[in-house]
Amino acid sequence: MPLVYTLVKRKDMSKGATEGSTLYHAQTSITKQLTLNKICTRIENLCTASRGEIILVLDGLIKVMNEALSDGESIHLGEFGSFRMVAGSKGSPTIDGFSTALFNRAHIVFYPGTMLKNIVNTVSFERYVPKKDASSESSGGGNTGGTGGDGGDERPGEL
């Protein structure tokens, strides 16, 4: 299934753009949510493992990942990808003046492995065009009902 997008008008920030000029940009939208419950159902349909066994393994994976990330370890899950915790800090003019209060909020970063990297090479896109009726014209339309995402995140993979 293709990624759904809408077109949004934004100020043209390119070098040499005239004052007040705008451009249309694509904005991808989340159209559905795959919950843990649905994941377990899908896995259950692919193998002989029971729902309880799948939940048990996934719950164990989450606990082990929490421990590993808290201990500063990176987690490598083969072709799926890897996770690691990162945090930068504000600077201090002296070594003695540095304290842990200068750290920025930590983030968990996911780096996709070959299994997921191949998906981006075959992605397709489909424009969402709201139906023209009285209700969509009065409300502005254009929203797919998803939880959004502007597609312009400069830090992909950051959780």
Automatic annotation (TrEMBL):
The keyword DNA-binding applies. Residues 139-150 have a biased composition (Gly residues). Pfam families: HU-HIG. Gene3D superfamilies: IHF-like DNA-binding proteins. Keywords: DNA-binding. Residues 1-127 form the HU domain. Residues 131-159 are annotated as: Disordered. InterPro entries: HU-HIG, HU_DNA-bd_put, IHF-like_DNA-bd_dom_sf. NCBIfam families: HU_rel. This is HU domain-containing protein. It comes from Parabacteroides merdae.
